[in-house]
Amino acid sequence: MNKNFEYLGNTFQIQLLNQLIVDKEFAQSIIDVIEPTYFDNKYFQLITQMVKEYYSKYQSTPSFETLEQIAKTEISTEMVLKIVLDMFKKVQDAPFEGTAFVQEKAMKFCKQQELQKVMDKAQKIINQGDFESYDKVEGLVRQALQVGERDTGIKDIFSGLDDVLNDDFRHPIPMGIPGIDRLLKGGLAKGEIGVILAPTGVGKTTILTKIANTAFNMGYNVLQIFFEDNPKIIQRKHFTIWTGIEPDKLALQKDEVMAKVDEIKNQMPNKLVLKKLPSDTMTMNQIKNQVRKMIADGLKIDAIVLDYIDCVMPESSKNDEWKAEGSIMRHFEAMCHELAIVGWTATQGNRSSISSEVVTTDQMGGSIKKAQVGHVIISVAKTLQQKEMKLATIAITKSRIGSDGIIFENCKFDNELIEIDTESSTTFLGFEEQKEEQRKDRVKELLDKRRQREQQQNTQS
Question: CA-CA-CA-CA torsion for 94, 99, 105, 107, nearest 10 degrees?
């Protein structure tokens, strides 16, 4: 049996150290059973010991900055300190690919080591003929087999009553569209995900940018990920929201824009991070690792805006495409829940959604499983006339939070100025009734015109 991680290679050990620091949940599950001696490099062993000692004292893993401070305090030899600091940099820059494999392999190794320790103890008890200690042996084996078991989410029904009964127990982050925020009881809370459903060219990026900008303006740290747009275009959209100046005219009023942007930059202590990622290789696990790295570097993300979920690749190319789409959305929801982040994303409508007056959930492109995961689904539809008039019909087609089946018909939706206004609304039923009334009015109008023509013909004859 292997005694350390040497057989798995140097890169594996560097990635494992990275995960011990970056992934708090994984660290919590393995920290008690992973030993410095499992690493084959004395500097790896030193880093592991530092992490374990810090965790023992503070019940949390240290950031890379904290580890550097500890190293500078405790290591007196200049050459050793330089090697350790260089090693920190390698660990911090460890590749994201394959981290799920690294965690699984490391956990199995540690379980195997713990089980071996138990078997050695059991053998000694058997050799001594101490059969009265059978219960002790059974307990040791059970404990070894439970190594690495994570929190199952089980909670006593009476726990945390004060927090549960608090009026603002969700602490939602508004999306910046008052009519919708009101129906969502203030917006989405951390751990909840919302989905914008719209056909091509309607304004998914517009509404997601509006959401990201609103959260930032309210003091939250926001990560806006996009795959298809140029970063400068996204920046200009935010500048338009802050200044009210159309993107094409920002350069003409550069001084005014710079003054406003500098004012906001100096006023806001929080961060709005824009991140462009490749659309043909990025998996949700890789995105999750990047978010974890940002958190480990000291930036706690409150909200993530992912533009958009259809660009994320499945973990395995062998998966059925429709099943994979549902799996990607579930991984997004799991990430937001684990890291306590509000999540917003968007998905394409299918071909029939392009000409629809109201886009419904069954018009979602790809797998309907994407709809099953989201806490909230908001659709956006635009006829050609609405596009010309800078209007849209927005509908809350699903909501686990508040009211759904609500339509905001012909509301202001200006892609240039990133302005969305939902003053008028009606229910789906009301919308259908309204359409029926319009049809009846049209029929009555045609009949009246026909009677008028007949009367004129009778008069002339």
Answer: 90
360 touches 212 (CB < 8 A): no
Question: Contact 369/326 with Cβ under 8 angstroms?
Answer: yes
Q: What are the residue ranges in the chain where pLDDT is below 50?
A: 152
CATH architecture assignment, domain 5-145: Orthogonal Bundle (1.10)
For residue 43, CA distances in Å to 8, 14, 56, 421 come to 17, 11, 20, 58
CA angle, residues 385, 345, 174, in degrees to nearest 5: 85
* DSSP 8-state class, residue 349: B
Intervals of CATH 1.10.860 along the chain: 5-145
Give residue for tokens 């003054």: 259
SS3 279: coil
pLDDT of residue 366: 77
Residues in Cβ contact with 103 at an 8 Å cutoff, skipping those fewer than 6 apart: 16, 19, 23, 26
Architecture of domain 178-435: 3-Layer(aba) Sandwich (3.40)
Contacts of 281 (CB under 8 A, 6+ apart): 313
pLDDT in the model for residue 272: 95
Helix ranges (H only) for 310-393 are 321-338, 369-373, 384-389
CA–CA gap between residue 78 and residue 74 (Å, rounded)? 11
Structure confidence at residue 442 (pLDDT): 66
Q: 172: which 2 tokens?
A: 């939602």
For 19, phi then psi, to 5°, come to: -70, -30
Cβ 307 vs Cβ 346: under 8 Å:
yes
Backbone angles phi, psi at 292, to 5 degrees: -60, -40
* 396 contacts 180 by C-beta, under 8 angstroms: yes
Q: How many CA atoms lie within 13 A of 402 on its CB side?
A: 17
Q: Which residues pair with 152 in a beta bridge?
A: none
| 397 three-state secondary structure | strand
The Cβ of residue 126 has, within 10 Å, a number of other Cβ atoms equal to: 13
Kind of pairing, strands 406-414 and 391-399? antiparallel
Smallest Cα–Cα separation from 199: which of 402, 397, 363? 363
Number of H helices, E strands in the chain: 17, 10
**Sequence ranges of the chain with CATH classification 3.40.50.300:** 178-435
429: which 2 tokens? Answer: 């039923």
Helix (H/G/I), strand (E/B), else coil: 169:
coil
CA neighbours closer than 13 Å in the CB half-sphere of residue 374 = 26
Instruction: Tell me how many degrees the CA angle 170-173-339 measures, rounded to the nearest 5.
Output: 70
Determine contact, residues 393/382, Cβ cutoff 8 Å: yes
